[in-house]
Amino acid sequence: MSITPPKLPRATPKVEDDEIDLLALLGVLLRGWKIVLAFAVLGLLFGVLYSRYVNPTYRANALLQLDEKSLGLSALGANISELVAPEVSLAQTERELIKSRMVLEPVVDLLHLDIQMVDPQQHALDRLLQAQTATPIHRNDGVTLDTGDGPARVSVFEVPQAYLNHTFTLRATPSGFVLSDGIYNFPGPLGEKTTFKTTAGNITLTVLSLPQDKHPIRLTKQSLQVSTDALNTALSVTERGKQTGIIELKLTGSDQEQVRRILTQIVNSYVTQNQERSSEQTTNTIEFMKSQIPKLKQKLEAAEATFNEFRETYGTIDVSKEAELLLTESYQIESQLNELNLKLAELSTYYTNEHPLVIQIKDQLKVLRTRRKEVKRLIARLPEIQREFLQLSEDMEINREIYLTMLKNHEQLKIVRAGEIGYVRAIDLPISTFKPIAPKKLQIYILSLLLGTLLGTLLVLLRNLMRNTVKDPEHLEAKTGIPVIATVPRSRSLQRLSNNKRAGKRLLAQVDHDGLTYEAIKSLRTFLMFGMPAVHKAAGKGKVILITGESPGVGKSFVTANLAEVFAHLDKKVLVMDGDMRLGHLHKVFTLTPAQQEQGLAEYLAPPSSFSCTHSDEPPPDSVALTQCIHPTSFDHIDLLPRGRHPKNPTSLLASDRFADLMAQLTPLYDYIFIDSPPVLVASDAMITAQYADKVLMVTRYSHSIEGQLAYVVKQLQKANIEVDGIILNDIRQGVLGRYSYHYSYAYAQEGLR
Question: Which of the residues 141, 341, 665, 701 has an alpha carbon 20 to 30 A from that of 543?
C-alpha cells in the first residue's frame, strides 16, 4: 500500500485444538438436512423395494421326544439280553443324525428335491410388481413350476455324473420338447419316459407339460451333496430347554405347503430310521439263530443216526444196575472231593497243617481219592459196547437239548421284534400356518430408514470434513489472522428477485432498504469511515478501497455496488471501477446502455493506436477526455467506470503506466473510489490494483468459500507485501441454521427509516 494508515485491531492466529464441537456438528447436520432427508427417503424406498423383491418366507415346525430305549431282549432272559449292550441316545447325537444324508437322502429321492427348475423370463421388475413369484413345487409325482405361459412339469430326470449340477434348457416344440445342454439338442415327446444317449452316459427324462410360445425353462439335476446341503441350510434342529429330550425341527421356504410336506417327510424318515436302528440288535440275533438252527438240526440228526445205527448193529443194550451205581458213585465222589478241597482251602487261611481239622479233612480226601481210583478201575472193566452206548446216548441228548432251546428262543425273538418300537416319538407334526415369517416389512422399513439417515449424516459430515467451508467468523479470524469487519446476511427479497431470470440486477436500496442486509452494509461503511487514514483528507485525495475475493461467486460485486451506494448517502462523490475486465457485470447493476458499456476501463488502458475513448494519440488523456469512459448512474453522486469490451491482456493493461496515470487523475476527483477486482485465485489483477488502494477488503461467502483457500489467498497477498485490512463474511443465513447470526444481530432497521 502506498500509505500506511492506522490499522484495525487484528486477530491473533491461534492453534486449533482437536476438541469436537457438538453444537458445530449439529449445525452442520441441520444445514445438510436436505441431504439427510434425501438419503432417508432413498433408504426407505430401498426397503420398500426390497420387501417386495424378496419372496415371503414360511416356516413349519415339528416336535420329537427322545425316550429311554427299552431292550426287548430282556424278555428272553439274562443269558441272551446280556450279550447285547444297551445304547444311550443324546439330543446332540440325534440332531446330527437328523441332518445326516442317511435321513435326508430318502426325502430328496421321494420329493425329487434334486430337480430344480427356474423361469429365466422372470426379471427383477416382475418380482417387484408381484407380491410373490413362482417357485418349483416338489411332490411325489414330480416337480411343477408355474409361469405366465403355463405350468412346466417334470416327473423323471436322471443324468450321468458328468451332467450333475449342469443347467439344461427345456423348450416346448410342436411335437413335444427339446432339451439343450448348450451344445446338443435332444428332442422328445411329452408324457413319455425318454432316454438320450450321450458320450458321458444316458439322460432319462419325462416331461408332462411345458409352457407355450417356446417359453424356456432352466432345468438342473443337483448332486446329492448339493441337495442335502441346501436342505440342511433351511433346516434347524435344536433341543428345547436343557436335558429335556424334546427336539424341535424348523424348516423354512418360500411355499408353506411345500415346507410342511418336506418337514413331514424328514420326520417320517428319521422315525423310520430310528425304529430300524432300535430293532437292529433283535434282527441281527434272529438272523444269527436262523443260520444256526439248520446246523444244530443237522448235528442232532447225525447224532440220532449214529445212535440208531449202533442199536441196530448190536441190538438193544440195557445198562446193568452195577454200571449205574458205579457212575452214580463216581459223580458223588467228585462232588465230595470238590467240597473238601474248598473247606481245606478255607481252613488253611486260619490254621496250620498240624491242626486236627486240617488233618481230618486231608484224611478224608485221601480215602475219597483211593475210592475214586477203584471206581474208575471198575468202570473200565465194563464192556466196550456198553461204554460206547452210553457215550452215543449222551451226545444225542445234548444235541437235542441245544436244538430245542435255540428253536424256542428264535420264536420268542420274533414275537419281541413284532412289538418293538423306537425310542423317538413324534409329538407335533408340521402344520401349515400360511403366516410368513419374513420379510418383516415394518422392521425393514425402520432399518432402511435409519440406514439411509445414517448414510446421509455420514455424507454430510464427510463433505463438511473434506470441504471445510467458512462458517464461524471467530474461527476464520483465528485461521487467517485477519479481522472479520462485517457479516452480511442474505436478503430474502433480493434472493427472490434474483431467481427471476427476467428481472435485472438490483441494489438493496431498491428492493430491501429496510432489511438487515442493508443495515449490515451501512455498518461496514461506518467501520471504513473511521478506519481510513486522515492524511487523505488533508491532502485532498480520494480514498481507494479495493474489494476482491478468493474465488468467483462470493459476492464481491454485490458488496462493492451496495457499499458505494451507502457512501453516496454521505454526499460524497463516489466512483465505482469495474476492475474485472474478464467477467465484470457492474454495468448491469447500474443499468448502462450498450454504447456506454463499450466505453470503459479496457478501452482507456488500451495502447494509443486502439484507444477509443478520445480517438487521439495524445498520451495520457486529460480529465475531460476521461469523462468519455466514466458514466454517471441513476444514483446521485455515483459514477461508474465499466470494464469495457473484453481485452486480450487485462493483466498487462493493469500493470501499464496508463493505469498508474489513471489512478493519479481519479483520486483528486472523487472522495471514494471502489475497485471491484477479479478473484485472487483466478487472476493476479488484484495484486496489481492493490498497490494503489488504501484498504484491501476480502469478501468470502458463508458456507460456500473454503477456509483453506481463503487462508492461502491471504498468505499469497502477504507475500506480495499486500496487507488485507478486513474480511467481509457475505450471505449468512439467519434462523436456527445460522449458528453465528449474533455477529450481525446488532444491525436492525426500523419501519420507514433508512
Answer: 701
Q: Which residue has the cell 498240624?
A: 354
Q: Which set of grid coordinates corresponds to residue 379?
A: 468202570
> Going edge to edge, which strands form the sheet with 185-188?
115-118, 217-221, 167-173, 176-180, 185-188
Spatial CB neighbours of 315, under 8 Å, sequence gap ≥ 6: none
Q: How far apart are CA 152 and CA 168, in angstroms?
A: 14
Closest residue by Cα to residue 719 from 684, 753, 682, 674:
684
Higher pLDDT: 644 or 70? It is: 644
Spatial distance between the Cα atoms of 293 and 299, rounded to a whole number of angstroms: 10
Provide the residue ranges of all domains of the chain, joining segments of one domain with +: 32-54+439-465, 58-278, 283-419, 481-743
Alpha-carbon span 580 to 152, nearest angstrom: 76
Residue pair 33/459 in contact (Cβ under 8 Å)? The answer is: no
Q: Cell numbers 426390497 label which residue?
A: 50
| CB 57 within 8 Å of CB 437 | yes
Q: Strands (DSSP E) along 6-93, which ranges?
A: 58-66
- Sign of the dihedral defined by the CA atoms of residues 47, 48, 54, 55, in that order: positive
Which H or E run contains 246? strand 246-253
Asked if the bond preceding 436 is cis, omega within 30° of 0, the reply is: no
Measured distance between the N- and C-terminal CA atoms of the chain, rounded to whole angstroms: 34
Phi/psi zone of residue 481: left (φ > 0), alpha (ψ -120 to 50 degrees), beta?
left
User: Who contacts 698 (Cβ-Cβ below 8 Å, separation ≥6)?
Assistant: 482, 548, 549, 550, 710, 713, 714, 724, 726, 727, 728
| pLDDT value for 447 | 95
Pick the CATH number of 283-419 from 1.10.287, 3.40.120, 2.40.128, 3.40.50: 1.10.287
Residue 542: per-residue pLDDT: 67
| DSSP at 174 | T
Q: Which amino acid type is present at position 94?
A: E
- Average pLDDT of the chain to the nearest whole number: 81
**Angle formed by the axes of helices 256-278 and 101-111, to 10°?**
130
Kindly report the number of other CB atoms within 10 A of residue 636's CB atom: 12
* 652 grid coordinates: 498487462
Q: Give residue-wise pLDDT tens across range 696-705.
A: 999 999 888 8
CA pair distance 535, 128, nearest whole angstrom? 79
Question: For domain 481-743, is the CATH number 3.40.225.10?
Answer: no
Taking a C-beta distance cutoff of 8 angstroms, is the pair 642, 631 a contact?
Answer: yes
Number of CB atoms found within 10 A of residue 629's CB: 24
Sheet harboring 150-158: ordered strands across? 137-139, 142-147, 150-158, 201-209, 193-198
Residue 44 amino acid letter: L
Tens digits of residue pLDDT in 385-418: 666 777 777 777 888 888 888 788 878 777 776 6
In contact, 725 and 531? CB cutoff 8 Å: yes
Q: Residue 506 phi/psi, 5° resolution?
A: -125, 160
Count of CB atoms situated within 10 Å of the CB of 233: 9
The pLDDT score that the predictor gives to residue 292 is 84
Coil, strand or helix: which one is 522? helix
Cβ pair 106, 129 in contact under 8 A:
no
Question: What's the CA gap between 469 and 707, in Å, rounded?
Answer: 6
pLDDT tens digit string along 245-297?
A: 899 999 999 999 999 999 999 999 999 888 877 677 677 777 787 888 888 88
Strands 543-549 and 695-701: parallel
CA distance 723 to 433: 81
Residue with cell 459430515: 461
The Cα 525–Cα 240 span in angstroms is 83
- The β-bridge relationship of strands 672-676 and 543-549 is parallel
Torsion 508-510-512-516 (CA) sign: positive
> Which segment of 119-128, 484-493, 654-663 scores lowest on mean pLDDT?
119-128
